[in-house]
Amino acid sequence: MNPKITIVGLGFGNEDSLSIGTWKILQSGDPIYLRTQNHPITPWMRQQGIEFAGFDHVYEKHDQFEPVYREIADELLRLADEHDQIIYAVPGHPMVAEQTVQLLLEDGQARNTEIDVQGGGSFLDIAFARLGVDPVEGFQLLDGTDLTDGHVLVPSQHILIGQVYSSFVASDVKLTLMQVYPDDYEVVIADALGVLGQEKIIKVPLYELDRQDCFTNLTSIYVPPAREDSIYYRQFSYLVNIMRKLRSPEGCPWDQKQTHESLRSYLIEEAYEFIDAINQQDDSAMVEELGDVLLQVIFHAVVAEDRYGFSLSEVIETLTEKLIRRHPHVFGAVQADTPDEVIQTWDEVKKSEGKRKKASILDDIPKSFPAVLTAYEQQKKAAKVGFDWEDVTGALDKMKEELKELAEAPNDLEREKELGDVLFTVVNIARFYKVDPEVALYQTTRKFDRRFRYVEQRAKTSGQPLEECGIDQLEVWWQEAKQIEKDEMNEIG
């Protein structure tokens, strides 16, 4: 006969919440072990002559909960081997927020130990009653000790956060909730629900949550469903529904008529505006411009839902699968410790993905790329198969050759061809120096913009029309602008 662990729940409070079935099991005479003796029912159990041991001493040995639960589960399995049959009692219900029970269920079969989970009054029962929660409206139960990501919160649902046993945990919970809710959003501190003489229900604004002095092992936080539309403005699904509303018959006439083709220029425009915000290191502009880029992505996805048969969910699914598939060094067993190794792994996965056979390695380059980016991508792909200079010296020598041919070009048509060769070689040099040529040229155009505006201002101050100043005077002002920039950089440095 295999060893057996019978797991029961002690309910949410004192003896009034203890079920008759659990009480009968506790009276069976088998050794009883409590995850924690810090429970309202334990004094009453002693009065009834029920003997038990607890694992509170294990909590004192570890700084994290995971090793605590692991040690308790291992010790219970050992005790079951020793006694054949034992009882393990936990607060509330065994299947609600009880990690040790999950570990026993996972390990019991491997250890040839029968795990028999019985019932018990969950704290959810009394919480629903005291807080007026109907879970059919939508309900989330979360662990306060493991709540750091606001993305898991669904503000349209009732949210109950357990394990808020200290002001430190409450502080972490508060900061996470503030990722979604306004600082003054009203939340409820619920402590010792259903325990006569100890129950507390306190409503506080969110920013005051961790300033209360009432946290115990029986404390939970209740967050009611949000009614204000503005709270949902950070929710991705709400944003998508806004776009769907704009595209609906009751929406915007302009949005209704858009197609993938009519939106193409906007996607390019918004991408460049975001790049401009990056180059200016303007955080607030980046927020706005990245939002505009996201708008274009969602706009195209909703257009596709309406007319082309694929959905935003499919777009997200395809992207998620690709990210996991192309990062085997993160989600698999492949080793890649440097950026170069990561790129090599990425390329190898791409080759094995079984896409349609291409006539050329250059086929992946979009025909709509601007010329500089096209040249950059062509050279990168050619270099991967060995069609490249050994180092930048070859590219620099090629530049001298192309400049000589440009200077010797006999007519406009030839000069155009040779100038194209010069620009192509410049892009190649940029690749060797690991410089993005588009970014480099952008920085130069910004620099020219600043300096020329300075020249215009100096001409205006002198009272002389710009075109009458003469090249010598314009060059003086230009050098002034350069010196000002140099002095400013030295001050920053």
Q: Secondary-structure blueprint of this entry?
A:
Blueprint: E1 4-9, H1 20-26, E2 32-34, H2 42-47, E3 53-54, H3 56-59, H4 65-83, E4 85-90, H5 99-108, E5 114-117, H6 123-131, E6 139-143, E7 158-162, H7 167-177, E8 186-191, E9 200-205, E10 219-223, H8 236-247, H9 253-257, H10 260-279, H11 283-307, H12 312-325, H13 328-331, H14 339-351, H15 371-384, H16 392-407, H17 412-432, H18 437-462, H19 471-492
Parallel strand pairs: 1-4, 1-5, 2-3, 2-4, 6-7
Antiparallel strand pairs: 7-10, 8-9, 8-10
Helix pairs in contact: 4-5, 8-11, 10-11, 15-17, 16-17, 18-19
Keywords:
493 residues, alpha/beta, Cobalt-precorrin-4 Transmethylase, domain 1, Methyltransferase, Cobalt-precorrin-4 Transmethylase, Domain 2, Helix Hairpins, five-stranded parallel beta sheet, five-stranded mixed beta sheet, 19 helices, elongated, EC 3.6.1.9, hydrolase, 4pyrrol_Methylase_sf, nucleoside triphosphate diphosphatase activity, coiled coil
Assign the CATH superfamily of the largest domain. Answer: Tetrapyrrole methylase, N-terminal domain
Q: List the strand order in the largest sheet.
A: 3-2-4-1-5
The ordered string of helix (H) and strand (E) elements is EHEHEHHEHEHEEHEEEHHHHHHHHHHHH
Beta fraction of the residues? 5-15%
Structural class: alpha/beta
What's the total number of strands?
10
Q: What is the CATH third-level topology name of the largest domain?
A: Cobalt-precorrin-4 Transmethylase, domain 1
Examine the secondary-structure arrangement and name the CATH architecture of the largest domain. Answer: 3-Layer(aba) Sandwich
Number of domains: 5
The span between the termini is 78 Å
Under CATH at level 1, the class of the largest domain stands as: Alpha Beta
Characterize the biggest β-sheet. 5 strands, parallel
The low-confidence parts are none
Please state the overall shape, judged from the principal axes of the Cα atoms. Answer: elongated
